[in-house]
Amino acid sequence: MTWQVFGLIVLSVSISALAQIVLKLGVSTPLDPLVRNAGRLTQAWAVISNGYVLLGFLLYGLGALVWLAVLSRVDVSQAYPFVGLGFILTLVLGALVLGEAVGPTRWAGALLVMAGIACLARS
């Protein structure tokens, strides 16, 4: 795998992790009281049309396009294990951007995921 392909993998995974954070911001935005008292379809539309949710969907689409560039260059079995980096990035971004509490057990799990990715990358 070339450094260029590895860079595309990191870019794709980073965009997808950022999409998770933006989507969380969108669905965490309180609904207007009028919408809250409306029907489920109105509530669903309010969530889906939220700017953060729309941006999250856009980021996912962009991440998928970058991933297609990755798949056109390397075997999927070689590239896909690196998707696990998304768990790590999402954990870090959740803590930094959303203020989520990350305890020792989660950090230990993140280290195990990183170790697994390293093992797969060397094989």
TrEMBL record:
GO annotation, cellular component aspect: plasma membrane
Membrane topology designation: Multi-pass membrane protein
Keywords (A to Z) from UniProt: Cell inner membrane, Cell membrane, Lipid A biosynthesis, Lipid biosynthesis, Lipid metabolism, Lipopolysaccharide biosynthesis, Membrane, Transmembrane, Transmembrane helix
Gene Ontology MF annotations: transmembrane transporter activity
A Gene Ontology biological process term: lipid A biosynthetic process
Transmembrane segments: 43-67, 79-98
Subcellular location: Cell membrane
Protein's organism: Plasticicumulans lactativorans
InterPro entries (alphabetical): EamA_dom (IPR000620), EmrE-like (IPR037185), Small_drug/metabolite_transptr (IPR000390)
Main location class: membrane
Protein name: EamA-like transporter family protein
